[in-house]
Structure formats: structure tokens, C-alpha cells
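for the writeup, i need someone to sanity check this before i put it in the appendix. the sequnce is what the collaborator sent (i think, or maybe the updated version? ugh). structure was predicted straight from it, no edits. if anything looks off just tell me and ill rerun, i have time this weekend
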Amino acid sequence: MKRYLHIALIVLFVAIIALFMLQNLDAATVSFLAISMTMPLAVLIFLVYVLGMLTGGFAVALLRKSFYGASRKKSEPS
């Protein structure tokens, strides 16, 4: 039963994303330093989302490593 719920949620999210992409086909121009690109708005939002996920993942990994290193130093005898 859980499997069908997960499949239904995936299908629902894919349908929502497809509808969002179809409604946001207008072009947006993005400039960074000397580079300028024109792309559909949906693609731009997707790229920003992926960059945010990567940044968040790296930040969490850095915090975990720092926490692990700090807790390891506390437990070692002086």
C-alpha cells in the first residue's frame, strides 16, 4: 500500500512540475560577469534550485565534519 502512495505522490509532483514548466516558457536573460544567456524561465528556476541543493549539501557536510572533529578532540585524552 505504501508503494502505491509513493508512486501516486511522484506522479502528482511530476504533473505539477510539468504544468509549471509549460506555463513558464517565457524567456529570461541572465547576466553574470561578461556572460549573458537567454533561457526559459522554468529552466532558470530549475538551475537555481539545483545550485541551492548543492550549496546546502556542502554546508551540511562542512558542519558535520566540523562537529565530528570537535567532538573527537573532546573525547581524546590530553
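The helical segments are 2-23, 41-75. The first helix runs from residue 2 to 23.
thx in advance!!
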